[in-house]
Amino acid sequence: MTEVTVSGKHMLSIIIKTAIAMAVFWTTVYLLIWFLEFTGMQMELATGSNNDDVLLTLAAGSFVLMAALEFLYVNLLKGTTSLKYDDSAVTLSSGLLMKTQTIIPYGRIKSAHTADEKLRFIDNLLGIATIVVHGDQTISIPGVKNAVQVVKEIGDRAASKKEKKADPMELVMKELTALKTEVTDLRKKFEEKEKRERSAKEEEKPKRKFILRPFEEAL
User: Fold this and answer.
1) Among residues of the chain, what percentage have pLDDT more than 70?
2) Are residues 103 and 211 in the same domain?
3) Cys-Cys link to 59, which of 3, 26, 78, 94 (CB 3.0-4.6 A)?
4) Per residue in 169-189, is it b (16+ CB within 10 Å) or e — as a string?
5) Is this model's pTM higher than 0.85 or not?
């Protein structure tokens, strides 16, 4: 059985993505305030404080708060979530207080791939990806190292285990062919039986005797 877990690089990936998103957000806020001031509107975010200093403080504080929450989240995820796969099925274990397991047999797997996420290039640089497996249910686990190789192994095992679904028309044609063969065999047996019976009747017929009459004897 092979087990994969959330990599520590997943936390770095989330922090970088958060930093990019917050930089875009606070830059937009800054440009909006600058535009309003440029048009003649006076805005004061905090009494007696420069707007630039206030925005910088808010941006730094929000980033530190988000980074702390993400640190707790990723460490919790690492300790509670894992993906295992053996020769029969793929199993996702998750949960903190109530541990749950989602099992998908290979025969029911529809597809397995890495998720196409936003800012995926960051995950590519860090060598991690989110694995997604579709079956009766869909399971996923983020921040997995060598995710492409894991997905390939799962896909290969699913392909080897999955039974080919027979086409209904193909089944009907097979049944018809078998029935035709059976009827042909019965017909041949019946014809052979008739021939044997005719031969037997011909052998049982008395042979015709030719009697020579006196005139014929004289000849």
Assistant:
1) 89
2) no
3) 26
4) eeeeeeeeeeeeeeeeeeeee
5) no
